[in-house]
Amino acid sequence: MIQKLYDKNNNPDVLQHIVDILNDGGIIIYPTDTMYAMGCHALKERPIEKICRLKDLNPKKNNLSIICYDLSNISEYAQVGNSTFKLMKRNLPGPFTFILKADSRLPKIFRNRKEVGIRVPDNTIIRDICRLLDAPILTTTLPLREGEDIEYVTDPELIDEKFGSEVDLVIDGGIGGIEPSTVINCYEDVPEIIRQGKGILIE
After folding, report:
1. Which of 72, 110, 170, 171 could form a disulfide with 30 if both were Cys (CB 3.0 to 4.6 A apart)?
2. Cα(74)–Cα(51) distance, rounded to whole angstroms?
3. Of 65, 49, 46, residue with least CA distance to 57
4. Is 139 helix (H, G, I), strand (E, B) or coil?
């Protein structure tokens, strides 16, 4: 199933339907300010496990990331020092993933790694959904096999063709990007860029 959404003035009933899917443990594909991503309610362990299987992720070895609506509730899910908070405030919303110490409120699948990636994308579609959900959304970019056409992770119609049978909804927010987020490790409160992506960090 594919659903067209826009940067603003989306039908509240449609947004609520998407929130209902997430609350019921469903998996959605959606645009961000970087690449299209797959996600679910970040406080529900079963859909997180399903996404890990779909992407062949080992939560004991691979970092997991969540989307928050804004900075106000990040401290509920991660430990943020003053300097890190100021750095995030200068750069978010934006194409960044900040690696922080995970808080105990997250499911134990996160606590196996003791750290969590935090995203606040500059994309109103997924942030509006996150705000209505009133919870973070687990997020991971769509997998692209070697030699596979990039359109299968950028064109919503082809994304639906490839992944539609494995997820509950594909959100069409237009053609997606091909650059990943810039990843900054702030686990020790001293920021270190461990992957340079689309975002240029303002320090």
Report:
1. 171
2. 22
3. 49
4. strand
In DSSP terms, 99 is beta-bridged to 117, 185
Pair of tokens at residue 116: 């969590």
Question: Mapping DSSP to helix (H, G, I), strand (E, B) and coil, where does residue 140 land?
Answer: strand
Considering only CA atoms, which of 181, 167, 81 is closest in space to residue 123? 181
Pick from 118, 112, 121: which is nearest to 78 by CA?
118
Cα–Cα distance for residue pair 193/182, rounded to 1 Å: 7
Cis peptide before 93 (omega within 30 of 0): yes
The predicted-structure confidence for 69-126, as pLDDT tens digits, reads as follows: 999 989 889 999 999 999 999 999 999 999 999 887 888 888 677 899 999 999 999 9
Position of tokens 């961000």? 32
- What's this model's pTM, rounded to 2 decimal places? 0.95
Nearest of 42, 16, 33 to residue 174 by alpha carbon: 33
